[in-house]
Amino acid sequence: METVRIDEMTWVDIKEKIENGYKTVIFGVGSTEQHGPSLPEQTDARQADEFAHIIALELGNTLQAPTINVGFSKYHMHFPGTITLRKETLSAIIEDYVNSLASHGFENIIIFISHGGNEEPVNAVLPQLREKYPEKKIFYYYTQDILPAMREMGQKHDLTFGEIGSHAGDMEASVMLHLAPDLVRKERLAKGYTKMITPRVRKKYRANGFQTITENGVVGDQTRATAEKGKDYMDHFKKVVFNYIRQKLEQ
Ligand SMILES: [Zn+2]
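A: This is the predicted complex of the input protein with zinc ion.
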């Protein structure tokens, strides 16, 4: 059976892979949080898992560890169903993941973050891990170099940045229509906050909750989302993510 997912393999397979040049491992860190009335709570977790999988296959000689499906989502707690870890809990999970994977001999450990709230807790624990394993490359990807690709998608599909949205907007709705159409409540695709997320606005929702800027939980406009566009977004972003990771690995 051909798989790169560690949790679908046995220890015998994994040992063999590592001894035969599989020196890189990647895992996603998503969230279980509200994504408006139409998208499932697994939206970020699903994207993290799909992207980590695509990257593992494309890089080659890479295995995928199980996606962490819950993240730091405190500012979404107004909406039922959101589960949040404390920042220090997420940092501790990352630390335990990396320690485990490092002990098995992986030389490169890549963390794919699909949700903004996770960046700080992941980043917080990396310096000490790098110090502990100076010979290993341990890094994360989260939206680095993504702006030109977003601009391109905006022009191509006649969407503003605000409509593409940073949370449950055209981008995430389209991607979920592509990845998991049965989980999208299409009759409820909606428009939410579509103005720019300035540092002041971000500060406001991080402190007081997402409901203070968007009543339905959407930042962006889902009403023109399509599965085709979702595939287009993924293809565009895949290139950016892959280039970034490649560069990091070659440094
Ligand atoms: Zn999301």
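The longest strand covers residues 24-29. Strands lie at 24-29, 62-64, 108-113, 137-141.
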